[in-house]
Structures are given as structure tokens and as C-alpha cells.
């Protein structure tokens, strides 16, 4: 993943012993079939080094794993929530996972080293940041074909498509900026300087605010989506932790929009920010390098992927305290909660 540590482009994948493979098959077969109960009960964690999605229930009990493409990163549900789409950085693909069958059912070839993506409102088009080509690329998911691409600053990562499908915001880590892209005209129409190494995006639509994490500045920039200008910066300080180790990346918004949770990376904390007055109200200790965050639909539990300690931490958002921490596969990247 783009950020503080370089990644190999041609990793060596050693063969696993047959006994491990058989165990993995048993584990896959043991995942209970997803049922349309209307109650969220599945949490998916992508493991970059194991090339798998780990499956948990919402209480943090491990249910199994799903083999996918190489180095899975960002995940989203496709419309209907029967399938998950996942970007795979080393095999240069988007993988499609059938959640009921618990297996990879299709792949879409994309550019080299795909990072984050977002979907068009109808779910038919994926807009993917292609790090090595410095572009935002659009792909027809069903047709498995490229549609167009737009040049960005170097090392694009975060992608957020507006609700009307007309625009996309894209972070450029090396340019310290967010680009506003007109998806019909296929061009950048605004570049907004945000801070050092912007990574991820979160939209508070009711407040007309786009929040941007600045990994190497220990801050979040808040953009007014009406004027397309930065109107506020939120600085993070963790007692006893150097500012250089406070590396915010992932964010999750509470269902009522009152709080934004920010993963502070190597500070091994997650911060709760009051969305209205922009004050940091809590800092919750978690595992090592907390980046990937996801919120339960009821807003009571936050799930945090700890990339360097190979763990998932569940946080009680009301008490702002950890509930439990469970082991995942190697290098958990992102978290996806069943809606």
C-alpha cells in the first residue's frame, strides 16, 4: 500500500504445504451460508499477505476465509449485497466474491497496482486509483473492460464518487492534494491542496464537508464541497507519541453523522472527532498501525484493522473502549461490514 513503506512489485509466493491447503478447504467449507435475515452478521477483513478475506461474525468470532486474488486491499459490496468487489494490488485485478458461496467467482483486469476504488451509483462502473500509472481509471464491471482514464497527481489513492455520479474526488499522495474530476468530461476541474500525503476520504453530505486524512501531517483537512476549499484542519496529538508516528489514514462516520472516527496509524490509536465542532473527544488504544476502519450499521461497534499486529479490534463506540481484539491473517488492510 502506498504510504510510509515501499511495496515490492514482484513478490515471491512460496508454495504452501498440502496439509495447509486441505485445512483451508475445510475452513472455507465451514463458513455458514449468509442468510437474508435483515440483521448484519458478517465482517470481512482483507489480508494483503495471505491473499484472502477473513470472515467473522459481528461479535468478532472467526467463521472462515475466502481465497481471492493477490494482495487484496479495498472492498465494497455490489448492489444487492450478494457480492463483494475487492481490489488486488499484486495481480492487478478487481475480484468478485459471491458471499453465499464463499468464493471468488470472477476477476476484472485493471492497471498496475490498483489502490482504492468507488462505484457509480448504479454499481456498474468501478473508478479505481491506479498508483503506478498515476490515473483514475473507469472500468465496466460486467463487461470486464476499461472505459477511460484521467491523469492525476502522483500516487493516487483515495476515491470518492458523488451521490449523483457526476464527479469523483481523488487523493494524490505525492502532490499533497485532492483532485475533483468531472466524470462526464474525463478531466480534472479542481485541485485542492490539503496537507502532506493525503490518503482517504469521507463525505459528510449533510454538512457539505469532505474529510481528508493527511498521513504525514497528523491531521485531517475538512473541505467545503460548495466552495471546494479547505475550511478547517484537525490536528492530532497523542501524549508520549512523536508526531511522526501519528499517521491518520482510514475513517468511519457514525450513522447519525455526529462523529467521525479516524485511525491514527502508527500511533496505535483511533480518535473520535465531534463532527460539529471538530474537537477530538476520545483516543482509544488499539493494535499496531490502525488504518482500516468500518462501522456497524447500528453505530455501536467500530472495527479496526491493525496492519502490523495482524489483528482486528472491536470498539464500543458508546463507551469509547475496546471490546476485544482477535487475530486475523497477515497484514489486514480493510474491513467491510455487512449492511
From TrEMBL:
What are the alphabetically sorted keywords of the record? Signal
The region annotated as signal peptide is 1-36
Write down the InterPro entries for this protein, in alphabetical order. Answer: Host-pathogen_enzymatic-act, Lactonase_7-beta_prop, N2O_reductase_N, WD40/YVTN_repeat-like_dom_sf, YVTN_b-propeller_repeat
User: Has UniProt tagged this entry with the keyword Signal?
Assistant: yes
Which NCBIfam families would you find in this protein's record? beta_rpt_yvtn
Give the protein's recorded name.
Answer: PQQ-dependent catabolism-associated beta-propeller protein
Task: Identify the species of origin.
Answer: Acidovorax soli
Amino acid at each position: 500500500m502506498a504510504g510510509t513503506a515501499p511495496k515490492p512489485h514482484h513478490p515471491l509466493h512460496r508454495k504452501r504445504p498440502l496439509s495447509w491447503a486441505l485445512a483451508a478447504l475445510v475452513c472455507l467449507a465451514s463458513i455458514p451460508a449468509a442468510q437474508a435475515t435483515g440483521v448484519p452478521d458478517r465482517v470481512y477483513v482483507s489480508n494483503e499477505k495471505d491473499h484472502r478475506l477473513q470472515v467473522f461474525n459481528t461479535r468478532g468470532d472467526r467463521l472462515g476465509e475466502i481465497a481471492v486474488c493477490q494482495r487484496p486491499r479495498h472492498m465494497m459490496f455490489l448492489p444487492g449485497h450478494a457480492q463483494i468487489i475487492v481490489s488486488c494490488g499484486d495481480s492487478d485485478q478487481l475480484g468478485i466474491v459471491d458471499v453465499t458461496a464463499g468464493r471468488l467467482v470472477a476477476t476484472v483486469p485493471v492497471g498496475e497496482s490498483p489502490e482504492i476504488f468507488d462505484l457509480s451509483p448504479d454499481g456498474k462502473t468501478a473508478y479505481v486509483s491506479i498508483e503506478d500509472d498515476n490515473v483514475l481509471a473507469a472500468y465496466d464491471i460486467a463487461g470486464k473492460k476499461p472505459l477511460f482514464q484521467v491523469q492525476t497527481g502522483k500516487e493516487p489513492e483515495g476515491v470518492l464518487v458523488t451521490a449523483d455520479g457526476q464527479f469523483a474526488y481523488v487523493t494524490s499522495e505525492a502532490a499533497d492534494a485532492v483532485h475533483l474530476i468531472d466524470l462526464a468530461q474525463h478531466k480534472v476541474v479542481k485541485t485542492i491542496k490539503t496537507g502532506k500525503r493525503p490518503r482517504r476520504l469521507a463525505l459528510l453530505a449533510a454538512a457539505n464537508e469532505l474529510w481528508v486524512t493527511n498521513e504525514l501531517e497528523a491531521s485531517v483537512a475538512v473541505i467545503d464541497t460548495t466552495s471546494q476549499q479547505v475550511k478547517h484542519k484537525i490536528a492530532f496529538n497523542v501524549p508520549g507519541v512523536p508526531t511522526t508516528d501519528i499517521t491518520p489514514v482510514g475513517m468511519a462516520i457514525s450513522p447519525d453523522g455526529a462523529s467521525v472516527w479516524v485511525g491514527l496509524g502508527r500511533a496505535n490509536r483511533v480518535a473520535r472527532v465531534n463532527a460539529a465542532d471538530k474537537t477530538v473527544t476520545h483516543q482509544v488504544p488499539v493494535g499496531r498501525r490502525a488504518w482500516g476502519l468500518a462501522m456497524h450499521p447500528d453505530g455501536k461497534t467500530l472495527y479496526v484493522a491493525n496492519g502490523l499486529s495482524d489483528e482486528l479490534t472491536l470498539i464500543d463506540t458508546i463507551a469509547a473502549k475496546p471490546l476485544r481484539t482477535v487475530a486475523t491473517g497477515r497484514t489486514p488492510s480493510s474491513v467491510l461490514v455487512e449492511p
